[in-house]
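Protocol step 4 of 5: obtain the predicted structure for the target chain.
Materials: sequence only (see below). No template structures provided, no constraints applied. The aim of this step is simply to have a reference model before the mutagenesis design in step 5. Sequence pasted as it appears in the construct record:
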Amino acid sequence: MTRKDFLKSFAAAPVLSSAARAQAAAKPCPPWQPGGLDIHHISTGRGNSTLFITPDGTSMMVDAGATSASLQYTITPKPSGARRPGEWLGRYAQRHLRAAGRDEIDYFVLTHLHGDHMGDVTPDQPMSKLGGYRLTGVSDVAEIVPIRRILDRGYPDYTYPSKQSNGAALNYIEFVKTQQKHGAVAERFRAGSAQQIRLLRKPSEFSNFSVRNLAVNGEVWTGVGDTTRHHFPALETLKPEDYPSENMCCLALRLSYGAFDYYTGGDLPSGIHDGAPAWRDIESPVARVAGPVEVAVLNHHGYTDTTGADYVSSLRPRVFLLLAWDSAHPAISSLQRIYSQSLYPGPRDVFATALKAENKIANKGLANLKSDDGHILVRVAPGGQEFRILILDNTSESDLVKAEFGPYPCG
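Step 4 output (C-alpha coordinates):
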Protein backbone atom coordinates (compact mmCIF):
# COMPACT_ATOMS: atom_id res chain seq x y z
CA MET A 1 0.00 0.00 0.00
CA THR A 2 1.32 3.43 -0.93
CA ARG A 3 1.43 6.29 1.53
CA LYS A 4 -1.39 7.97 -0.41
CA ASP A 5 -3.59 4.85 -0.21
CA PHE A 6 -2.88 4.53 3.52
CA LEU A 7 -3.94 8.13 4.20
CA LYS A 8 -7.11 7.64 2.14
CA SER A 9 -8.04 4.52 4.14
CA PHE A 10 -7.36 6.32 7.44
CA ALA A 11 -9.54 9.24 6.43
CA ALA A 12 -12.38 6.87 5.57
CA ALA A 13 -12.27 5.18 9.00
CA PRO A 14 -15.10 6.14 11.40
CA VAL A 15 -14.24 8.65 14.10
CA LEU A 16 -15.19 7.30 17.54
CA SER A 17 -16.64 9.59 20.19
CA SER A 18 -14.98 9.69 23.61
CA ALA A 19 -17.88 7.63 24.98
CA ALA A 20 -17.47 5.04 22.24
CA ARG A 21 -13.71 4.86 22.87
CA ALA A 22 -14.33 4.37 26.56
CA GLN A 23 -16.88 1.64 25.81
CA ALA A 24 -14.43 -0.06 23.46
CA ALA A 25 -11.76 0.00 26.17
CA ALA A 26 -14.15 -1.30 28.84
CA LYS A 27 -13.67 -4.80 30.22
CA PRO A 28 -15.96 -7.16 32.12
CA CYS A 29 -15.89 -6.76 35.89
CA PRO A 30 -13.81 -9.58 37.39
CA PRO A 31 -15.88 -11.54 39.92
CA TRP A 32 -15.30 -11.42 43.67
CA GLN A 33 -12.55 -13.71 44.88
CA PRO A 34 -12.38 -15.46 48.29
CA GLY A 35 -10.49 -13.34 50.79
CA GLY A 36 -11.47 -10.11 49.04
CA LEU A 37 -14.12 -7.60 50.07
CA ASP A 38 -16.41 -6.12 47.41
CA ILE A 39 -18.73 -3.19 48.15
CA HIS A 40 -21.08 -2.34 45.26
CA HIS A 41 -22.87 1.01 45.34
CA ILE A 42 -25.62 0.38 42.82
CA SER A 43 -26.65 3.26 40.57
CA THR A 44 -30.31 3.09 39.52
CA GLY A 45 -31.02 6.81 39.84
CA ARG A 46 -33.94 6.02 42.18
CA GLY A 47 -32.31 5.76 45.61
CA ASN A 48 -29.61 4.11 47.71
CA SER A 49 -28.54 0.47 47.68
CA THR A 50 -25.22 -1.15 48.51
CA LEU A 51 -24.25 -4.81 48.12
CA PHE A 52 -21.41 -6.30 50.19
CA ILE A 53 -19.63 -9.58 49.50
CA THR A 54 -17.32 -10.18 52.44
CA PRO A 55 -14.05 -12.18 52.59
CA ASP A 56 -15.73 -15.51 53.35
CA GLY A 57 -18.67 -14.95 50.99
CA THR A 58 -21.17 -13.73 53.58
CA SER A 59 -23.41 -11.22 51.80
CA MET A 60 -25.19 -8.08 52.94
CA MET A 61 -27.31 -5.39 51.31
CA VAL A 62 -27.78 -1.98 52.92
CA ASP A 63 -30.96 -0.28 51.65
CA ALA A 64 -32.87 -0.89 48.42
CA GLY A 65 -34.30 2.43 47.35
CA ALA A 66 -37.07 2.97 44.80
CA THR A 67 -38.24 6.56 44.92
CA SER A 68 -41.27 7.78 42.98
CA ALA A 69 -39.94 11.36 42.93
CA SER A 70 -40.63 13.42 39.82
CA LEU A 71 -38.14 13.31 36.95
CA GLN A 72 -38.23 17.09 37.11
CA TYR A 73 -35.86 16.79 40.06
CA THR A 74 -34.19 13.43 39.47
CA ILE A 75 -32.16 11.75 36.76
CA THR A 76 -33.83 9.23 34.47
CA PRO A 77 -33.89 5.65 35.79
CA LYS A 78 -30.83 3.47 35.20
CA PRO A 79 -30.44 1.32 33.16
CA SER A 80 -33.95 2.31 32.01
CA GLY A 81 -37.57 2.52 33.07
CA ALA A 82 -38.31 -0.90 31.60
CA ARG A 83 -38.22 -2.47 35.07
CA ARG A 84 -38.95 -1.26 38.57
CA PRO A 85 -35.85 -0.03 40.46
CA GLY A 86 -36.05 -2.92 42.92
CA GLU A 87 -36.02 -5.38 40.04
CA TRP A 88 -32.81 -3.84 38.70
CA LEU A 89 -31.32 -4.06 42.20
CA GLY A 90 -32.31 -7.70 42.61
CA ARG A 91 -30.93 -8.65 39.20
CA TYR A 92 -27.66 -6.80 39.92
CA ALA A 93 -27.28 -8.60 43.26
CA GLN A 94 -28.16 -11.95 41.70
CA ARG A 95 -25.49 -11.59 38.98
CA HIS A 96 -22.68 -10.69 41.33
CA LEU A 97 -23.67 -13.18 44.03
CA ARG A 98 -23.87 -16.01 41.49
CA ALA A 99 -20.43 -15.07 40.17
CA ALA A 100 -19.24 -15.46 43.76
CA GLY A 101 -20.99 -18.82 44.12
CA ARG A 102 -23.81 -17.44 46.26
CA ASP A 103 -27.58 -17.30 45.72
CA GLU A 104 -28.94 -15.40 48.72
CA ILE A 105 -28.52 -12.24 50.80
CA ASP A 106 -27.52 -13.12 54.36
CA TYR A 107 -28.29 -9.68 55.83
CA PHE A 108 -30.56 -6.92 54.61
CA VAL A 109 -29.98 -3.75 56.63
CA LEU A 110 -32.43 -0.85 56.28
CA THR A 111 -31.03 2.47 57.49
CA HIS A 112 -34.46 4.08 57.90
CA LEU A 113 -38.04 4.04 56.69
CA HIS A 114 -37.91 6.30 53.64
CA GLY A 115 -38.87 5.27 50.11
CA ASP A 116 -35.53 6.11 48.52
CA HIS A 117 -33.99 3.55 50.89
CA MET A 118 -36.69 0.82 51.01
CA GLY A 119 -39.16 1.56 48.19
CA ASP A 120 -42.03 3.98 47.67
CA VAL A 121 -45.53 2.64 47.06
CA THR A 122 -47.71 3.59 44.10
CA PRO A 123 -51.07 2.11 42.97
CA ASP A 124 -49.60 0.60 39.80
CA GLN A 125 -47.13 -1.66 41.63
CA PRO A 126 -48.10 -5.35 41.68
CA MET A 127 -48.90 -7.24 44.85
CA SER A 128 -46.48 -9.88 46.03
CA LYS A 129 -47.42 -13.49 45.44
CA LEU A 130 -46.70 -14.08 49.15
CA GLY A 131 -49.13 -11.68 50.74
CA GLY A 132 -50.52 -8.24 51.32
CA TYR A 133 -47.70 -5.96 50.23
CA ARG A 134 -46.67 -4.36 46.97
CA LEU A 135 -43.45 -5.02 45.11
CA THR A 136 -41.07 -2.10 45.41
CA GLY A 137 -37.48 -1.65 46.53
CA VAL A 138 -36.49 -4.37 48.98
CA SER A 139 -39.64 -6.42 48.42
CA ASP A 140 -38.75 -6.56 44.72
CA VAL A 141 -35.21 -7.64 45.61
CA ALA A 142 -36.53 -10.46 47.80
CA GLU A 143 -38.58 -11.83 44.87
CA ILE A 144 -35.31 -12.36 42.98
CA VAL A 145 -32.76 -13.12 45.72
CA PRO A 146 -33.85 -14.70 49.03
CA ILE A 147 -33.11 -12.60 52.13
CA ARG A 148 -32.25 -14.56 55.28
CA ARG A 149 -32.06 -11.87 57.97
CA ILE A 150 -33.54 -8.35 58.14
CA LEU A 151 -32.18 -5.66 60.44
CA ASP A 152 -33.82 -2.26 60.80
CA ARG A 153 -34.33 0.54 63.32
CA GLY A 154 -37.95 -0.17 64.23
CA TYR A 155 -38.61 -3.90 64.61
CA PRO A 156 -40.82 -5.28 66.09
CA ASP A 157 -43.38 -2.54 66.84
CA TYR A 158 -42.07 0.39 64.72
CA THR A 159 -43.35 2.92 67.25
CA TYR A 160 -40.25 5.04 68.01
CA PRO A 161 -40.52 7.99 68.14
CA SER A 162 -44.15 7.52 67.05
CA LYS A 163 -46.21 4.87 65.29
CA GLN A 164 -45.60 4.56 61.55
CA SER A 165 -48.48 5.69 59.35
CA ASN A 166 -46.81 6.33 55.98
CA GLY A 167 -47.98 3.98 53.22
CA ALA A 168 -44.47 2.99 52.16
CA ALA A 169 -43.48 2.22 55.75
CA LEU A 170 -46.64 0.15 56.32
CA ASN A 171 -45.94 -1.76 53.11
CA TYR A 172 -42.40 -2.50 54.32
CA ILE A 173 -43.64 -3.65 57.74
CA GLU A 174 -46.07 -6.06 56.08
CA PHE A 175 -43.20 -7.31 53.92
CA VAL A 176 -41.12 -8.04 57.03
CA LYS A 177 -43.97 -9.93 58.70
CA THR A 178 -44.55 -12.05 55.61
CA GLN A 179 -40.86 -12.80 55.16
CA GLN A 180 -40.76 -14.04 58.75
CA LYS A 181 -43.62 -16.44 58.02
CA HIS A 182 -41.51 -17.86 55.22
CA GLY A 183 -38.38 -18.42 57.30
CA ALA A 184 -36.52 -15.09 57.40
CA VAL A 185 -35.31 -13.65 60.71
CA ALA A 186 -36.04 -10.03 61.66
CA GLU A 187 -34.27 -8.05 64.38
CA ARG A 188 -33.89 -4.51 65.61
CA PHE A 189 -30.42 -3.14 64.87
CA ARG A 190 -28.49 -2.99 68.17
CA ALA A 191 -26.26 0.04 68.64
CA GLY A 192 -22.80 -0.81 69.97
CA SER A 193 -22.82 -4.44 68.88
CA ALA A 194 -19.95 -5.98 66.93
CA GLN A 195 -21.61 -9.40 66.79
CA GLN A 196 -25.04 -8.78 65.24
CA ILE A 197 -23.51 -8.69 61.74
CA ARG A 198 -20.72 -11.23 61.45
CA LEU A 199 -19.13 -13.65 59.02
CA LEU A 200 -21.19 -16.84 58.69
CA ARG A 201 -19.00 -19.22 56.69
CA LYS A 202 -15.33 -19.07 57.63
CA PRO A 203 -15.10 -16.51 60.46
CA SER A 204 -11.98 -18.10 61.97
CA GLU A 205 -10.05 -17.43 58.75
CA PHE A 206 -10.83 -13.69 58.83
CA SER A 207 -10.56 -12.58 62.44
CA ASN A 208 -9.54 -9.11 61.20
CA PHE A 209 -13.03 -8.50 59.75
CA SER A 210 -15.80 -6.88 61.79
CA VAL A 211 -18.91 -4.72 61.58
CA ARG A 212 -19.53 -2.29 64.42
CA ASN A 213 -23.06 -0.94 64.87
CA LEU A 214 -22.42 2.74 65.56
CA ALA A 215 -25.88 4.18 66.19
CA VAL A 216 -29.63 3.81 65.82
CA ASN A 217 -32.57 5.90 67.08
CA GLY A 218 -30.15 8.35 68.68
CA GLU A 219 -28.39 5.66 70.72
CA VAL A 220 -24.67 6.03 69.96
CA TRP A 221 -21.76 3.69 70.65
CA THR A 222 -19.30 5.13 73.20
CA GLY A 223 -16.23 3.45 71.72
CA VAL A 224 -15.84 1.28 74.84
CA GLY A 225 -16.96 -2.34 74.65
CA ASP A 226 -20.56 -2.49 73.49
CA THR A 227 -21.75 0.40 75.68
CA THR A 228 -23.90 3.20 74.28
CA ARG A 229 -25.32 6.53 75.33
CA HIS A 230 -28.59 8.25 74.47
CA HIS A 231 -28.00 11.36 72.38
CA PHE A 232 -31.66 12.40 72.10
CA PRO A 233 -33.62 13.69 75.09
CA ALA A 234 -36.41 11.54 76.50
CA LEU A 235 -39.56 11.80 74.39
CA GLU A 236 -41.66 12.82 77.39
CA THR A 237 -39.63 16.03 77.58
CA LEU A 238 -40.50 16.98 73.99
CA LYS A 239 -43.58 18.05 72.11
CA PRO A 240 -44.58 15.59 69.36
CA GLU A 241 -43.70 18.15 66.70
CA ASP A 242 -40.15 18.29 68.14
CA TYR A 243 -39.55 14.54 68.12
CA PRO A 244 -36.45 13.28 66.28
CA SER A 245 -37.09 13.02 62.55
CA GLU A 246 -36.91 9.79 60.56
CA ASN A 247 -33.51 10.82 59.20
CA MET A 248 -32.22 11.52 62.70
CA CYS A 249 -33.16 7.97 63.73
CA CYS A 250 -31.06 6.37 60.96
CA LEU A 251 -28.73 3.54 61.82
CA ALA A 252 -25.02 3.76 61.03
CA LEU A 253 -22.23 1.20 60.88
CA ARG A 254 -18.49 0.89 60.40
CA LEU A 255 -17.07 -2.09 58.54
CA SER A 256 -13.42 -3.01 59.09
CA TYR A 257 -11.14 -5.47 57.31
CA GLY A 258 -7.49 -5.38 58.25
CA ALA A 259 -6.36 -1.76 57.88
CA PHE A 260 -9.44 -0.87 55.79
CA ASP A 261 -12.39 0.95 57.40
CA TYR A 262 -15.68 2.00 55.78
CA TYR A 263 -18.52 4.19 57.09
CA THR A 264 -22.16 4.46 56.05
CA GLY A 265 -24.98 6.21 57.93
CA GLY A 266 -28.05 6.59 55.74
CA ASP A 267 -29.48 10.11 55.96
CA LEU A 268 -28.10 11.18 59.36
CA PRO A 269 -28.23 15.01 59.56
CA SER A 270 -25.89 17.40 61.31
CA GLY A 271 -28.65 19.82 62.37
CA ILE A 272 -26.58 22.80 61.30
CA HIS A 273 -29.59 25.05 60.74
CA ASP A 274 -29.54 28.26 62.77
CA GLY A 275 -31.20 27.98 66.16
CA ALA A 276 -31.43 24.16 66.25
CA PRO A 277 -30.67 22.59 69.65
CA ALA A 278 -27.35 20.74 69.84
CA TRP A 279 -28.95 17.32 70.23
CA ARG A 280 -30.39 17.54 66.73
CA ASP A 281 -26.86 17.16 65.39
CA ILE A 282 -26.59 13.37 65.39
CA GLU A 283 -24.14 13.20 62.48
CA SER A 284 -21.21 14.65 64.46
CA PRO A 285 -21.18 12.30 67.49
CA VAL A 286 -21.57 9.28 65.22
CA ALA A 287 -18.68 10.39 63.01
CA ARG A 288 -16.47 11.06 66.03
CA VAL A 289 -16.95 7.57 67.44
CA ALA A 290 -16.45 6.01 64.00
CA GLY A 291 -13.03 7.63 63.74
CA PRO A 292 -10.85 7.82 60.62
CA VAL A 293 -11.85 5.58 57.71
CA GLU A 294 -10.58 4.88 54.21
CA VAL A 295 -13.99 5.23 52.54
CA ALA A 296 -17.00 7.23 53.73
CA VAL A 297 -20.47 7.44 52.21
CA LEU A 298 -21.90 10.95 52.42
CA ASN A 299 -24.89 11.15 54.75
CA HIS A 300 -28.18 12.16 53.12
CA HIS A 301 -26.63 12.32 49.63
CA GLY A 302 -24.54 15.33 50.67
CA TYR A 303 -27.67 17.42 51.16
CA THR A 304 -27.53 20.85 52.80
CA ASP A 305 -28.33 19.54 56.30
CA THR A 306 -25.37 17.12 56.39
CA THR A 307 -21.62 16.86 55.90
CA GLY A 308 -20.79 19.09 58.85
CA ALA A 309 -17.26 20.02 59.83
CA ASP A 310 -17.07 17.30 62.52
CA TYR A 311 -18.18 14.64 60.04
CA VAL A 312 -15.43 15.58 57.59
CA SER A 313 -12.62 16.07 60.12
CA SER A 314 -13.47 12.96 62.16
CA LEU A 315 -13.79 10.51 59.27
CA ARG A 316 -11.12 12.16 57.05
CA PRO A 317 -11.39 9.47 54.35
CA ARG A 318 -9.20 8.99 51.34
CA VAL A 319 -12.36 8.42 49.30
CA PHE A 320 -15.81 9.99 49.63
CA LEU A 321 -18.78 8.33 47.93
CA LEU A 322 -21.83 10.36 46.93
CA LEU A 323 -24.97 8.26 46.35
CA ALA A 324 -26.84 10.83 44.28
CA TRP A 325 -29.75 11.10 41.86
CA ASP A 326 -31.54 14.38 42.72
CA SER A 327 -30.83 17.98 41.67
CA ALA A 328 -30.05 18.80 45.33
CA HIS A 329 -27.34 16.12 45.60
CA PRO A 330 -24.93 17.46 46.78
CA ALA A 331 -25.20 20.95 48.25
CA ILE A 332 -22.48 23.47 47.39
CA SER A 333 -21.62 23.89 51.09
CA SER A 334 -21.26 20.12 51.58
CA LEU A 335 -18.92 19.81 48.62
CA GLN A 336 -16.80 22.69 49.89
CA ARG A 337 -16.34 20.98 53.26
CA ILE A 338 -15.47 17.68 51.62
CA TYR A 339 -12.55 19.26 49.81
CA SER A 340 -11.51 21.56 52.69
CA GLN A 341 -7.81 21.23 53.52
CA SER A 342 -8.42 23.05 56.81
CA LEU A 343 -10.71 20.27 58.06
CA TYR A 344 -8.04 17.68 57.31
CA PRO A 345 -4.95 17.85 55.11
CA GLY A 346 -4.03 15.62 52.24
CA PRO A 347 -5.61 14.25 49.07
CA ARG A 348 -9.12 12.88 48.81
CA ASP A 349 -11.05 11.56 45.81
CA VAL A 350 -14.81 11.92 45.40
CA PHE A 351 -17.00 9.62 43.30
CA ALA A 352 -20.74 9.90 42.58
CA THR A 353 -23.20 7.29 41.33
CA ALA A 354 -25.00 9.98 39.26
CA LEU A 355 -25.52 13.72 39.00
CA LYS A 356 -28.46 15.75 37.78
CA ALA A 357 -27.32 18.03 34.94
CA GLU A 358 -28.76 21.12 36.61
CA ASN A 359 -26.59 20.56 39.68
CA LYS A 360 -23.46 20.42 37.53
CA ILE A 361 -24.30 23.89 36.24
CA ALA A 362 -25.02 25.40 39.66
CA ASN A 363 -22.29 23.59 41.60
CA LYS A 364 -19.06 24.17 39.69
CA GLY A 365 -17.02 22.21 42.24
CA LEU A 366 -18.53 19.01 40.85
CA ALA A 367 -16.02 19.25 38.01
CA ASN A 368 -13.44 17.96 40.50
CA LEU A 369 -15.16 14.59 40.95
CA LYS A 370 -13.22 11.58 39.71
CA SER A 371 -16.40 10.00 38.33
CA ASP A 372 -20.03 11.14 38.29
CA ASP A 373 -21.98 8.29 36.69
CA GLY A 374 -21.96 4.53 37.21
CA HIS A 375 -22.02 1.79 39.81
CA ILE A 376 -19.13 2.32 42.25
CA LEU A 377 -17.34 -0.85 43.32
CA VAL A 378 -14.93 -0.61 46.23
CA ARG A 379 -12.69 -3.67 45.87
CA VAL A 380 -10.53 -4.38 48.92
CA ALA A 381 -7.58 -6.75 48.43
CA PRO A 382 -7.29 -9.89 50.58
CA GLY A 383 -5.98 -8.91 54.00
CA GLY A 384 -7.35 -5.35 53.77
CA GLN A 385 -4.09 -3.51 53.08
CA GLU A 386 -5.19 -1.73 49.89
CA PHE A 387 -8.28 -1.07 47.80
CA ARG A 388 -9.32 0.08 44.34
CA ILE A 389 -12.34 1.90 42.95
CA LEU A 390 -13.98 0.42 39.84
CA ILE A 391 -16.66 2.34 37.96
CA LEU A 392 -19.13 -0.01 36.26
CA ASP A 393 -21.44 0.84 33.38
CA ASN A 394 -25.01 1.55 34.55
CA THR A 395 -26.63 1.96 31.13
CA SER A 396 -27.09 -1.81 30.73
CA GLU A 397 -26.56 -4.99 32.69
CA SER A 398 -23.12 -5.53 31.14
CA ASP A 399 -21.28 -4.43 34.33
CA LEU A 400 -18.35 -3.37 32.16
CA VAL A 401 -15.56 -1.55 33.98
CA LYS A 402 -15.47 2.00 32.60
CA ALA A 403 -12.64 3.26 34.80
CA GLU A 404 -10.37 2.09 37.60
CA PHE A 405 -8.63 4.10 40.33
CA GLY A 406 -5.96 3.12 42.82
CA PRO A 407 -4.57 1.17 44.44
CA TYR A 408 -5.08 3.20 47.59
CA PRO A 409 -3.07 2.08 50.64
CA CYS A 410 -5.01 1.53 53.87
CA GLY A 411 -4.23 2.61 57.38
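Step 4 remarks: The CA atoms of residues 31 and 96 lie 7 Å apart. The chain has one domain: 29-409.
Proceed to step 5.
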